[in-house]
Every structure is written in C-alpha cells, then in structure tokens.
Write a structure and sequence with these properties.
The chain is α+β, with helices and mostly antiparallel strands. 33% of the residues lie in helices and 29% in strands. It is built from three helices and five strands; from the N terminus they run αββαβββα. It has helices at residues 3-12, 40-53, 100-113; strands spanning 16-23, 28-34, 67-71, 76-81, 88-94. A hairpin with a 4-residue loop joins strand 1 (16-23) and strand 2. Helix 1 packs antiparallel against helix 3. The longest helix has 14 residues, at 40-53. It starts with a helix and ends with a helix.
Length: 115
C-alpha cells in the first residue's frame, strides 16, 4: 500500500483525517497520508495500538481479529489487518460521526485496491 493509496482512501472517505499503513510486527510506519501534518510519535502510537489490538493477547479466545474500531466522544480509530499479510495494518483516525458501514467498507476495500 502506497501513500497514493492512502490519499485515495481519504478522498473516498472524507471523515478520515489520517491514514497510516504499518508493519505491526516491527512497529514501523510504512506510509501515511493526513489532512494535517502529524508528529512521528502520533503515527507510531497508532502503529503500536494496532500491534496491541492484533496481537491475539487472549482477548478473542484464540481467534485473531482482522478489524478493530475504537470510538470515543472526539474520535474514531479504525484498524484493519491485511488478509494476505497479517503483519501489515491500515490505521485510520476519523471524525466520530463517520458512518460505520462506510468506514468498514473503505478499510477493507483499501487492501483489495492497493498498488
């Protein structure tokens, strides 16, 4: 997934303020696209959160999730694991009013259309 793919995701989903593609095994941000410049530590924090969510950690009784959404009153953070490469994840920081079905569809479709 490239920065152009992330820019296209954000164009298709205007509520997405930041999209990060990360290697969750190594904790490395591979590409990012944002409405505003974010410090590297914010990108790293999203990558670390994805790693924690997708680590298995027993919370899902042996099943490893491929999608996680964290909602607060001010933000929606969505995480999608690449079905073909489980160490790669897409992390999206969105406005809290993002329609959930559009968010899930856009996140999952991003891997299918990634260059």
């Amino acid at each position: 997934m490239t920065a152009d793919d992330l820019a296209q995701l954000r164009a298709d989903l205007p509520e997405c303020e930041l999209a990060v593609f990360a290697d969750v095994f190594s904790g490395t941000v591979l590409a990012a696209d944002a409405a505003l410049k974010h410090p590297q530590e914010n990108l790293d924090a999203l990558c670390a959160e994805a790693a924690r969510l997708f680590s298995g950690a027993g919370a899902f009784e042996g099943a490893e999730p491929d999608t996680a959404v964290v909602l607060t009153s001010v933000t929606c953070r969505a995480f999608f694991r690449d079905p073909a490469e489980p160490g790669e994840a897409l992390c999206c920081l969105c406005a809290p009013g993002v329609p959930p079905e559009r968010l899930l569809e856009a996140g999952r479709a991003a891997f299918a259309g990634a260059g």
